Amino acid sequence: MNYVIAYGTRKGATRETARILGNELKENHRCSIRIMDAKNVSDDDLSWADRLVIGTSIVMGRWKRSCKRLVKQAGKESKPTAIYVYAAVTLSEKIPDEKPKKKHNKKSLDRVGYEVEEFIDPVCGKCHLNPIAKTAFGGRLSFFGHDIINNHTEAPIKAWANHLSKIPFGDEPDNHKRPS
């Protein structure tokens, strides 16, 4: 199976996640992989790919523009697509809202669900894309070269790569339907 793993990053951590995903799919599941910045993905790359994986950093609640463009294109072409967001702050138990010190007491899987509902589902809904898989990974937040938050670990990334490889080809959702 051919995968294009496209990322949008600000500081390089989302690119590192793409590299880990790609290595896991290539080494343990014998997939062919192209890893690239989302702004460099061509029509030829999309034609080559059986599946597309898009990863974006989330800063101040916003996606990288190149990743949103790619989600829109995948929706129009009904390309089987998986999406991940890289979200250090929420997965560190801090929910951004008007009360800066508000914390929530939900478990890690609940926080991933929050990220999916807050950041992936609205974008996919607007682009008429029903992803084959979606998740959020912990990340890094640095100021002046010092990590303020670092909850980036390889284990969940590798586990998600394993999950992606087990989705049978042809079992992808109909991308002309809006996500529910």
Give the topology, please.
Blueprint: E1 2-8, H1 13-29, E2 32-37, H2 43-48, E3 51-57, H3 65-77, E4 81-86, H4 88-91, H5 108-127, E5 133-137, E6 140-143, E7 146-150, H6 154-166
Parallel strand pairs: 1-2, 1-3, 3-4, 4-5
Antiparallel strand pairs: 6-7
Helix pairs in contact: 1-6, 3-5
Question: What report would you give on this structure?
Answer:
With 180 residues, this protein is of the alpha/beta class. The protein has a single domain (2-166), classed as Flavodoxin domain (Rossmann fold, 3-Layer(aba) Sandwich). The protein is built from six helices and seven strands; from the N terminus they run E-H-E-H-E-H-E-H-H-E-E-E-H. The protein has a five-stranded parallel β-sheet with strand order 2-1-3-4-5, sandwiched between helices. Strands 6-7 form a two-stranded antiparallel ribbon. The longest helix is centred in the middle third of the chain and has 20 residues, at 108-127. The protein is globular and about 45 Å long. The protein starts with a strand and ends in a 14-residue tail after the last helix. Residues 94-109 and 174-180 have low confidence and may be disordered.
